[in-house]
Amino acid sequence: MTTEHRNASSWIADRTLAFDSSGIRKVFALAATMKNPINLSIGQPDYDVPAEIRRSACEAIESGKNMYSPTQGIAPLIEKLKAEVASKYPSEDRDLFISSGTSGGLVLAMLSLVNPGDEVIVFDPYFVMYVPLIQLVGGVPVLIDTYPDFRIDLNKVRDAITPRTKMVLFNSPSNPTGVTATLEEIRGIAELCLEKGIALLSDEIYSPFHFGSPMVSPAKFNPQTIVIDGFSKSYAMTGWRLGYVHGPREIIQTMIKLQQYTFVCAPTPLQHASLAAMDYDMTAFYKNYESKRDRIVEGLRGYYEFVEPGGAFYIFPKVPSGASGKGACTGSEFVAKAIANELLVIPGNIFSKRDTHFRVSFAASDETLDRGIEVLRKLARG
Ligand code: PMP
Q: Is the pLDDT of residue 10 over 70?
């Protein structure tokens, strides 16, 4: 009997090979070489979870709430979130469960809805996870380019729809652009999906960071919309891994069934603590981010081309043509220059087929923002 010696790398499943993580790794590797970085690359708030909510988490642990929760989450949290959702988007058929982060919700949505070969429409630029997740389940990402204004052109969406289209993935306020969809765009995409019988998955993780007016979900115009939301950004608890999903009952029940065999449940003590979080008024934090948005917009105006963000905590400027000192350079080349000046931002090609822009996170102290603006102004002059 012969024993074949197989290289461990040959065991890796094909589904993992469609994408890699080298782009973002390169940025992190560069960041590690920086001594005192002006870090405007972070995708999470710069404030901490308020003390009262942290205490609730400690109390939940101390009082023994450390076991599995029901797969769908603890009842009082589900009820509270359901009541909030029902007051905005009344529907007989809307169910809700607690996921392991918004990312967990996205994974379960893909597994539940996308068959191999199904096409999923994604607006480019997009949140990094979308394309690999679609590919992981055998789906085909169909990218719609939204440059230069990052608006949704419904005609382009209509043209992209084929008999294989299963889903449109929508994200407003957007990561990486900070752009918020207009009411007409939201209504348009919601009604188009309804008309065509296509699933609409709306990632609303940045919904509290919607400056000026409250965010309206496409669920208002299309009751079949599947909404992915979570506590990570709104309460600065990205490490707590708490998300929630609401949508048509059968789809939510399917996602819960899959959660049972994958994530099992979201962290139990933190679900209890997030009940306390829901009673905590975070408005001042969001207002503060609105003024940070104003600060970065004023700081970069006249130096860069950008669309003024209406939400989230990102701005996505275009690399100026003079930035290389000898004509246009790519987003990646520009970021290398920024890093040489101790400024960490993210190249646009991490989020896009194009490499022409870069993402700045304004979730930073005003001092850090001002230092970053100074470097960016210098780089813009070439
Ligand atoms: N969607 C978007 C658009 C995001 O920016 C992020 C986090 N960067 C997520 C989902 C994932 O959030 P969570 O930490 O809740 O998994």
A: yes
Residue type, 219: A
Q: Ligand 1 centre and the CA of 102: distance in Å?
A: 6
Dist. CA 171 → ligand 1 center (Å): 10
| CATH 3.40.640.10 boundaries in the chain | 65-277
Among 232, 269, 226, 219, smallest CA distance to 248 is for 226
Amino acid, res. 116: P
pTM of the predicted model, to two decimals?
Answer: 0.95
203: closest CA among 170, 178, 236, 234? 170
Q: What is the pLDDT of residue 29?
A: 79
Tell me how far CA of residue 222 lies from CA of 64, 153, 279, 324, in angstroms: 41, 18, 29, 46
Task: Name which of 217, 124, 234, 138 is nearest 172 in CA terms.
Answer: 217
- 73-102 residue pLDDT tens: 999 999 999 999 999 998 888 999 999 999
Q: How many CB atoms lie within 10 A of CB 41?
A: 22
Partners of 168 in the β-ladder = 121, 200
Q: CB atoms < 10 A from the CB of 12, how many?
A: 10
CATH class as words, domain 65-277:
alpha beta
Does the beta carbon of 311 sit less than 6 angstroms from any atom of ligand 1?
no
Q: Distance between CA atoms of 63 and 319, rounded to whole angstroms? A: 53
The pLDDT tens digits of the residues spanning 213-228 come to 999 999 999 999 999 9
Confidence of residue 27 (pLDDT cuts 50, 70, 90): confident
131: nearest Cα among 352, 360, 335, 327 = 352
Q: Which residues pair with 311 in a beta bridge?
A: 210
Q: Which residues contact 336 (CB under 8 A, 6 or more apart)?
A: 30
**Degrees to nearest 5, angle at CA 202 with 72 and 234:** 70
Which class in CATH covers the domain with range 10-48+282-381? Answer: alpha beta
Q: Is 230 in the pocket of ligand 1 (CB under 6 A)?
A: yes
43 lines ligand 1 (CB under 6 A): yes
